[in-house]
Design a protein that fits this description.
Helix content: 10-25%
Subunit structure: Homodimer.
CATH architecture of the largest domain: 5-stranded Propeller
Subcellular location: Mitochondrion inner membrane
Distance between the termini: 48 Å
Shape: globular
Protein name: Glycine amidinotransferase
CATH topology of the largest domain: L-arginine/glycine Amidinotransferase, Chain A
Structural class: alpha/beta
Mean pLDDT: 88
Enzyme class: transferase
Largest sheet: 3 strands, mixed
EC number: 2.1.4.1
Strand content: 15-25%
Number of helices: 10
């Protein structure tokens, strides 16, 4: 007779074991199957679940462990329609002629030094830093629907969404990022073996049907009109989303329809998480939405930063709940800075270590002063060269463990 013990893993006091059939024991890292029982993981006493090393419910609880991305091996993505739709026209030649090639070596060397400094500061602040594996992003790959080369493993926030004790691998929407998950698999498997839950969202085909090949460029007068109607370069052919289009605040998760996240992808996550969480779909006055964390960031219970250039159409949701809505100052980054697929509003793409400490850009003096007025200590450094690869401090990280519990804030 086959007997199974199913365990919901989580930190002490959060998740209880539940049983289906007769209790089984944990023996080794490799699952063992016999005619009488299934055993998984390390041997534990009866009724004692593994304690997950993964636990994060929001953006501000005390940070204990984080993944920081890698510069090594970064390649320029091929200039496909989904890349064209999200980059400024003045950068198109760079992507056209360097697509599939490494980023300039001198620039990568400076970016790598900045990220090493970032990691050292995190460790000095008591945070455990983990890094993805180094993989070959230059390799061309082909599926029945498309061919491409890779990009990088620089932005873990784009691909990994941590909800409680679960790591969710986002399906992504750029063809150049189809196999990006491979760099993170050694870490994810380690977390899983130690008790974390691990889910991979359905991988999209990324066939031509997922993209609007006639999507207008940024200078087309129809661009703003159709973006207001949530008509973006990604269609609803199949679910797709980047993890960075979701902002966590306990049981409330804020999502946006963007160039890389469609309504089908948001609906998939909503059904997957179930009634335990409320997913609020927000929209902004933004003709090129891509990743919510340069538009809206929740930095503490009841405190949200809202980009004044991209006003939120549902801002009353926060105001009626009594939240403090803070409009940060305009960034000081020069227009001439080479950002590629990034935006100047990386000034608010910050990493909260807790409600009293924040890592932010040393050159963004007005933003630094804003945090000081809010009673938050800024820990400052520059990652300007790393910014050019596509993100700020929040983008370059995924928090794996924060010390706190799951609560409601709305």
């Amino acid at each position: 007779m086959l007997t199974i013990r199913a365990v919901r893993v989580g930190s002490k006091g959060r998740e209880a074991a539940y049983h289906s059939g007769t209790l089984c024991s944990f023996r080794s890292r490799v699952a063992c199957l016999s005619s009488s029982k299934i055993t998984l993981g390390r041997e534990k006493q009866a009724g004692t679940p593994l304690r997950s090393p993964v636990w994060s419910c929001n953006e501000w609880d005390p940070l204990e462990e984080v993944i920081v991305g890698r510069v090594e091996g970064a390649h320029v993505p091929p200039f496909t329609e989904e890349v064209q739709a999200t980059t400024y026209k003045e950068h198109w030649d760079f992507f056209k002629y360097r697509g599939g090639q490494p980023y300039p070596a001198a620039h990568l060397a400076k970016a790598a030094a900045e990220i090493e400094t970032f990691c050292n500061i995190l460790e000095q602040e008591g945070v455990t830093v983990r890094r993805p594996a180094i993989v070959d992003h230059s390799m061309e790959y082909k599926t029945p629907d498309f061919r491409s080369t890779g990009m990088y493993a620089a932005m873990p926030r784009d691909i990994l969404l941590v909800i409680g004790d679960e790591i969710i691998e986002a399906p992504m929407a750029w063809r150049s990022r189809f196999f990006e998950y491979r760099a993170y698999r050694p870490l994810i498997k380690e977390y899983f073996q130690k008790g974390a839950r691990w889910t991979t969202a359905p991988k999209p085909q990324m066939s031509d049907e997922l993209y609007d090949k006639n999507y207008p460029d940024e200078n087309d007068p129809n661009r703003h009109k159709i973006s207001d109607q949530a008509k973006l370069v990604t269609t609803e052919f199949e679910p797709c989303f980047d993890a960075a289009d979701f902002m966590r605040a306990g049981r409330d998760i804020f999502a946006q329809r963007s160039q890389v996240t469609n309504y089908s992808g948001i609906e998939w996550l909503k059904r997957h998480l179930g009634d335990k969480f409320n997913i609020h779909c927000l929209s902004f006055k933004d003709e090129n939405p891509m990743h919510i964390d340069t538009t809206l960031i929740v930095i503490a219970p009841g405190v949200v930063l809202c980009n004044p250039e991209r006003p939120c159409h549902q801002i009353d949701l926060f105001k009626k709940a009594g939240w403090n809505v803070v409009y940060p100052p305009y960034p000081v980054m020069r227009d001439s800075h080479p950002l590629g697929v990034s935006f100047k509003w990386l000034s608010i793409n910050v990493l909260m270590l807790d409600t009293k400490r924040v890592i932010c850009d040393v050159d963004e003096t007005p933003t630094v002063k804003m945090f000081e007025k809010l009673g938050i200590k800024p820990i400052t450094l520059s990652i300007r060269h790393a910014n050019s690869l596509g993100g700020g401090f929040h983008c370059w990280t995924t928090d794996i463990r924060r010390r706190g519990k799951l609560e409601s804030y709305l």
